Amino acid sequence: MWNADEIAQLCYTHYGTKLPKQGKPEPNREWTLLAAVVKIQSAANWDFDSPDKRVQVTKEVVSMGTGTKCIGQSKMRKSGDILNDSHAEIIARRSFQRYLLHQLRLAAALKEDSIFIPGTQRGLWKLRPDLFFVFFSSHTPCGDASIIPMLEFEDQPCCPVSRDWVNSPSVVVSGNLEAPKNEGKCEDSDSPVTKKMKLEPEAPAREVASDVTHRQSFDKQESGQISPTVSSSNFTAEGLATVTITAPSGAKVVDVYRTGAKCVPGEAGDSGKPGPEYHQVGLLRVKPGRGDRTCSMSCSDKLARWNVVGCQGALLMHFLEEPIYLSALVIGKCPYSQEVMQRALIGRCRNVSALPKGFGVQELKIQQSDLLFEQSRCAVQAKRTDSPGRFVPCGAAISWSAVSEQPLDVTANGFPQGITKKGINNHQARSRISKVDLFRSFQKLLSSISEDKWPDSLRGQKLETYQEYKEAASAYQEAWSALRRQAFGSWIKNPPDYHQFK
């Protein structure tokens, strides 16, 4: 069994004890976001016929990321050596891919401590049946999942954090939280300080049975079991108020929490009207940049994508019998709506069908913790009291993976922190989770396996570039094409010449 607070506390403790000071926010001046992947393993004697029975599980953080930044389109590089998107969720996922590659190397070397066991087809592996993964984020993902209805008894958005909210007895903080000072201009409407809590009491964190069968594919397309549902992409925020939220005591929805993510070109844009119609919900969005528009899709969109095609990406799918899905998502203490999270991460893709074997729209379990991240914007703002100077997001991003060599990686502006412009083209001037470095790790894994044991998708082909290896993962590409065709048609894809490195 586990609950949301246990997952949050495990991640906060890992952040405080395993990550270095380098890359963390400067005290009283900076804040950041945190995300992680937690491995849950059931006891060896767990009874599969009694999934609701209380059982002992072990919980381990296997990847972690911090960060709030993205690079603009003009800074993207065709060599694959820069991190385009350094939001915490994306750093954590790329760090998770690094962990999966390490575990596949262990499996290929026949090490018993790998999370993988041989699959039924040559060269393929599958996750051990007693394991599943939980994703943690200290804040709701940017984009659609952050467009949350605001009730009439709540304060309006874009206000400084209030003493009443921070000191609310329903808020438990990981760390010491001093009384805040009501000052400061709203700089980022998608951040915790401007998104104040809903005032209705929260339900206690629910304990979740470690039903490892939950991680299995929920592919119901072939049996036709997916029930029809209305697409949320046609809802306005005003419609959302009546469709997805039950206001206590007849409270009226008067506004929405705002997201800084912008609608992708080609889709209907936000109205910008004051009140609940400011945003249109269900749309694909890109992360904002400072003047230079980014090509990075919002974290809400990426999490929704992973919930259909898996977290492993195209390259790793060559070695896997089925995708690696997240079984649950835990969000830290922040403004939150269960209905909005369900819509943004699951509902938008609910009707996607005709997916390859093993792929399916997952029934992701989504929960919120009552624990506040001590270096989130609202927690740091509360400590600032009389601190002079600007209050800004931390410019660095930290990656941590549960790997045997060099688990840490600290970057700024997409490159290892401290790298000068002169040293950028040096191979040491790359993040260990950049596209090119993950590709090198994939190639190293492939070279460690004799060719007669390669998976069929790689045998008899002369593949050289990153793009060619990705395209050769046919089942993954088929699933991704179906998702784009049926739900995410306006998804921004980088031009092929950005993936031609070898």
Describe this structure in words.
The chain is of the alpha+beta class. 22% of the residues lie in helices and 16% in strands. It has helices at 4-18, 88-108, 163-166, 237-243, 299-309, 313-317, 338-345, 377-383, 435-447, 466-471, 474-486, and strands spanning 2-3, 30-31, 34-42, 57-66, 68-70, 85-87, 116-118, 125-127, 131-137, 149-151, 172-173, 207-208, 253-256, 262-263, 285-286, 328-331, 365-368, 371-372, 392-393, 396-401, 408-412, 415-416. The strands form eight sheets. The chain has an eight-stranded mixed beta sheet with strand order 17-16-9-3-4-20-21-22, with helices on both faces. Strands 1-12 form a two-stranded antiparallel ribbon. It has a two-stranded parallel sheet with strand order 2-19. α2 (88-108) packs parallel to α9. The chain starts with a strand and ends in a 16-residue tail after the last helix. Mean pLDDT is 82; it is low at 47-51 and 156-246.
- General form: globular
Helical content, roughly?
A: 10-25%
Quickly give the structural class: alpha+beta
Q: How confident is the prediction overall: mean pLDDT?
A: 82
DSSP E strands, number:
22
Helix tally equals: 11
Uncertain regions spanning at least 5 consecutive residues = 47-51, 156-246
Radius of gyration: 22 Å
Biggest β-sheet strands, sense, barrel: 8 strands, mixed
Beta-strand content bin = 15-25%
Distance between the termini: 45 Å
Order of strands across the biggest sheet? 17-16-9-3-4-20-21-22
